[in-house]
Amino acid sequence: MLQMTKRTQLLALLGAGSLLCSVAEEAVSPNLPGKYVSWNRYVTCNSQKMAQPSNVFDLQRIVRNAYKNGGHVKGVGHLHSSSDIICTDGIGVNFDKFKKIKIHEDQQSVTVEAGVRVYDLVKYLSENGVGIANFPNIGDISVAGALGTGAHGSSLIQPSTMSDLVLSMRVVTGTGELKTIKGDLLDAFRVHIGVVGLLYDVTLKLIPGYKLHVQNYPVPASKLLDGSIEAMVPNYDLFQVWWFPSTDTAVVSNGTYVSDAEPGNDKWNFITSADPQDVTGMVDTFESVQAARDVGKICKMEAEAEKSFWTKVPGKPAIYSNPQGELRNPAVGFPHDMMSQVCSPCSWDGKVNKIPFDLRHISMGVPLERFKELVQEIQKILDRFPACFPFNGIWFRFSPASDGWMSLSYGRKTVHIEFLTPCRVNKDSDPKLGIEAIQLISQTLVNKFDARPHWGKNGHYYFSHKVRSAVHPKLKEFGQLAKSLDPRGVFSNDFTDRIFHSNPSKLASTVKQCALEDICLCSRDTDCAYGQICVKENEYRYCTYKEEGYRLDDAFTEAF
Ligand SMILES: Cc1cc2nc3c(=O)[nH]c(=O)nc-3n(C[C@H](O)[C@H](O)[C@H](O)COP(=O)(O)OP(=O)(O)OC[C@H]3O[C@@H](n4cnc5c(N)ncnc54)[C@H](O)[C@@H]3O)c2cc1C
Ligand SMILES: *[C@@H]1O[C@H](CO)[C@@H](O)[C@H](O)[C@H]1NC(C)=O
Q1: Which of 30-34, 135-139, 315-319, 363-367 has the weakest average pLDDT?
Q2: Residue 455 in contact with residue 496, Cβ under 8 Å?
Q3: What pLDDT was estimated at residue 360?
Q4: 256 lines ligand 2 (CB under 6 A)
Q5: What is the number of the ligand closest to the CA of 255?
Q6: pLDDT(14) > 80
Q7: Residue-wise DSSP of 258-271
Q8: Which of the residues 103, 183, 463, 502 has an alpha carbon 20 to 30 A from that of 357?
């Protein structure tokens, strides 16, 4: 076995021309198309082809070929990021054959291959009496993908991302070398934004197995302003808040890790599998409500969502349920059931409905000490431009300061602000309802609060050198280190060219009405929907209808 391995390695090293090519070809799956899209169809990538390697030598061959030929390669996860962080014009690499998990004998760490689903990992760990301290709320993503964007859960007293739990990782670098990233290098690449190489496997820190005991309950929104929230967060292993401005309420969720021997097999029904009929109904409803600019109706949906977060409402599964499907609140269950959601089919899956149900999320990390000020600022915007958030309201999650250079919470305690908005059927030509508030809130976070936009969410505009260099103090150093591992830029793409080299966005110049989807900030009326105008107020830009009667006139003439 060892001999075989050595021989294969030797052959690869010698670069025995034809053999190398044919082996590399074999790894390319004829069933996987080169073109791929993000979960919500915001981003489409046109790679030449998609490879499906089975072992680390395949990974090395793919990279070495690209290195030799000046080509590009990108590890492809489960495409739950909706930024062009996922794209390559060269070879996409699928990791479905990298699914091994090995818990080490001392039960202190686990080595996981890159393609393992987060949900499967967490479940497997629970079944074996161990766990990881935190992970993102979506279980459908891959381990390598979660580390790619520094995807987070919510806690101040536990590490809040899987990136923070990495003890070492093995990557195939841009020269095709298999390298173990540990020690000093590790902090640089914990959050790897797709450039460290092809991630082969990763070793994560374990804790003893646990269950989550959690409770959701409504509090008056005034609690967001009087320091109560900041005082509560550090008392819980899991803590998050959903703010529903239209009902003047926030729903708090406080959770504690308890022994896995504790009774309770409850589960969280935050994201559930979709019934195609419901999806059709949702697409139709959101389109008609938005086309009619019926803010009142969207706010009614927000109010219904608020109730469903802590009690049973008709037509929705209970927020937590026991195996009999009955409401449980407080609830107790295993982490994979209580903290990470999977769905099949998911409401956004393209095949579920003729017109896909498309969503956008804004999500950014802001220094926690500015929480109150931030809530006030958002309230001011909503007072001016009424808007409602029918899915999760405005969601606050928390992270302790992280050492990961590219982490959203690098060096600072962080509150993550997130909201989801439904798309229009014709997203490129029709504006979302509440576009003024959506655009002003996003820009306020960045302009006033040093927000770090989540690497896998937000509009294309937020992935520029200008935005990023202002908020990631280690950006330049990170770029240099990445280059030392990938001297020919095998893992580079449009995304890295913009972020590290200030290249202009290729996309923004080709898309018409680019402000509607935050591909640009508007600079002229034609960047907005037909009939809309682009308003400029200091450094803020937003699209609106002139007849909406918001104080536009001055702003409009001043802009042009
Ligand atoms: C419904 C939903 C809920 C979500 N909930 C959360 C949440 O709770 N918290 C949160 O922070 N985020 C959340 N996200 C965002 C999501 O967790 C991140 O975008 C995550 O990075 C996606 O992982 P993925 O496996 O889909 O990877 P992808 O999106 O496919 O890729 C992410 C990055 O990792 C790279 N990559 C993937 N595999 C490899 C590999 N083997 N080698 C090298 N590079 C690789 C890719 O090139 C890319 O740069 C959510 C997204 C959705 C759609
Ligand atoms: C959550 O907070 C409430 C109110 O302070 C408290 O009664 C409850 O015990 C907490 N629940 C958990 C699971 O920690």
Answers
A1: 30-34
A2: no
A3: 98
A4: yes
A5: 2
A6: no
A7: EETTSS---EE-SS
A8: 463
Q: What is the mean pLDDT of the chain?
A: 93
Domain boundaries, the chain: 101-208, 210-333+342-467
- Report the Cα 554 to chain-centroid distance in Å: 38
CATH superfamily of 210-333+342-467: FAD-linked oxidases, C-terminal domain (3.40.462.10)
Q: What is the DSSP letter of 90?
A: S
In the reported structure, the alpha carbon of residue 256 is separated from the centroid of ligand 2 by a whole-number distance in angstroms of 9
CA quadruple 274, 276, 277, 282: dihedral positive or negative? positive
- Which one, of 399, 405, 520, lies nearest residue 466 by Cα? 520
- CA dist., res. 374 & res. 497, Å (int): 32
Instruction: Please give the CATH number for the structural domain made up of 101-208.
Output: 3.30.465.10
Is the dihedral angle over the CA atoms 420, 423, 429, 430 positive or is it negative? Answer: negative
DSSP helix/strand/coil, 357: coil
CA distance linking residue 237 with residue 10, whole number of Å: 49
Closest to 353 (Cα-Cα) out of 274, 272, 273, 276: 276
Ligand 2: distance of its center to the CA of 260 in Å? Answer: 19
The residues with which 204 forms a beta bridge, in sequence order, are: 110, 166
Burial (CB count within 10 angstroms: exposed 0-12, middle 13-18, buried 19+), residue 483? middle
Pocket lining: 151 vs ligand 1, CB cutoff 6 Å: yes
pTM (two decimals) = 0.93
Atom number of ligand 2 nearest to Cα 214: 13
Q: How far is the CA of 258 from the centre of ligand 2 (A)?
A: 13
* Cis amide prior to 234 (ω within 30 degrees): no
| Nearest CA-CA partner of 236 in 126, 364, 398 | 398
DSSP secondary structure letters along 492-535? --HHHHHHHH-PPPHHHHH-TTGGGGTSS--SSGGGS-TTEEEE
Among 299, 223, 222, 208, CA closest to 254:
223
Closest C-alpha to ligand 2, atom 8: 215
| Cα(318) to centroid(ligand 2), Å | 19
